[in-house]
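Thread: quick sanity check before group meeting

JM: Hey all, I'm pulling together slides for Thursday and realized we never actually wrote out the predicted structure for the chain we discussed last week. Dropping the sequence here so it's in one place. If anyone has concerns about the input, flag it before I start.
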Amino acid sequence: MSRLHSRAWVREAIRLLEADANRSADTHLHVFPLPLDWGIDLYLKDESVHPTGSLKHRLARSLLLYGLVNGQIGADTVLIEASSGSTAVSEAYFARMLGLKFVTVVPRRTSPEKIALIEFYGGTCHFVDAPPAMYTEAERLASECNGHYLDQFTYAERATDWRGNNNIAESVYAQMRAERHPIPTWIVVGAGTGGTSATFGRYVRYRRHTTKVAVVDPENSSFYGAWQTGALDYGTGMSSRIEGIGRPRVEPSFVPGVIDEMLRVPDAGSLAAIRLLRERTGHWAGGSTGTNLYGAFQLIAGMLEEGQAGSVVTLLCDGGERYANTYYNDSWLTEQNLDIEPYTAKFEEFLTSGKFTPEILPE
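JM (edit): ok, ran it. Output follows.
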């Protein structure tokens, strides 16, 4: 293929990605009901309504655009990723749109539901026995087939334009303009790659907003320890049960300097929160949304204690239908030794009194 032909293909690929974005309306900003006399509003930006059903739809599109404009992706490029979850699902969707082969490296124990979603969009799963081997195997595959390793964990923070260009932060502030507290007091997000917290943290500083960014971290994850100690080589070596967030190592896209607060959240608390969300709003979400809600409740309780009015925005990251056999299955909770009842009671007390005592997790 000539260089001219290659440039023409890239232009058409970018047009296809832009057209897909234009066909999708912006994601909704839902209100979570709180007592009116608190003077505090809680919003959830519903990323589950993207065509591939999760927040990772934005990331996948950004990663492909980044590869295209950097000359790393052409008409014959094989796209490689290390992901067993929502990022791989979204990348497979965009790869099929561009007529490109997509292979993702996944642990052998990956659920059949996830594999089916990746394959539904035309992706191929390459299995490894140990999750930490995903990274090196993805690099090897990309090298062998002269492909492009999308590498979400390295490029998430730089593939998204944090100044604007319809990123999630810009979208939130545009949607908040008509609310009674248009500039959020807090933005609450989890960290999987670290890209979302980097985007929000950079954007609020660039736009000179007073908003603070809080990152919630589930059990077994390394991000909280890295933020607390300043050691970016901090690692737990353990996988998170809350899919989409939490990592056994600190990923390169994690930018601790743009984060104002980090909160550790018990897994049972995350899963109690998504059931509360469904009961109170009808929205069915995955576990990472519950982690976000737990952190938002904790911060709102602090605002109430200080007599502070304002708004808090967090994310509904993906839909709950993907977790019907796990997070919403009482037998699975029992197998995992997760008791959500104490947290359900904690949330009910919070929504009545405004008081919330977080659990102190062991270091």
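AS: nice. The first strand starts at residue 29 and ends at 32. The chain has two domains: 12-54+163-353, 56-157.
JM: adding both to the slides.
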